[in-house]
């Protein structure tokens, strides 16, 4: 299962949408935005010392990822067999 560490009004919304679209099971852990820096609750998540959001942990594989595009690619290929995406060597990739 994917655990999404969510910071309100952030790119984490993309990850939630993707999981819903692909019917991928997930859990959301909400964090409250700090007006100056990343909240301590997000920095204290194992593997996320910089407090980045979105940040996901895959409980099945132990993989930790930040950055929405990297997370999206991981979910698309790990949980959906590439559904919704083309590989870079696909002739229609640039279209």
TrEMBL record:
Domain GST N-terminal, first and last residues per copy: 1-83
Pfam families listed in its UniProt record: GST_N_3 (PF13417)
Gene Ontology molecular function, alphabetical: transferase activity
Alphabetic keyword roster: Transferase
SUPFAM superfamilies: Thioredoxin-like
Name the UniProt record assigns to this protein: Glutathione S-transferase like protein
Organism: Zymoseptoria brevis
């Amino acid at each position: 299962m994917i655990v999404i560490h969510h910071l309100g009004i952030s790119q984490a919304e993309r990850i939630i949408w993707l999981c819903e679209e692909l019917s991928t099971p997930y859990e959301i852990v909400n964090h409250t935005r700090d007006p100056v820096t990343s909240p301590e609750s997000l920095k204290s998540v194992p593997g996320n010392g910089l407090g980045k959001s979105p940040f996901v942990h895959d409980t099945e594989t132990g993989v930790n990822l930040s950055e929405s595009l990297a997370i999206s690619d991981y979910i698309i290929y790990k949980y959906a067999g590439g559904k919704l995406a083309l590989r870079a060597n696909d002739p229609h990739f640039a279209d």
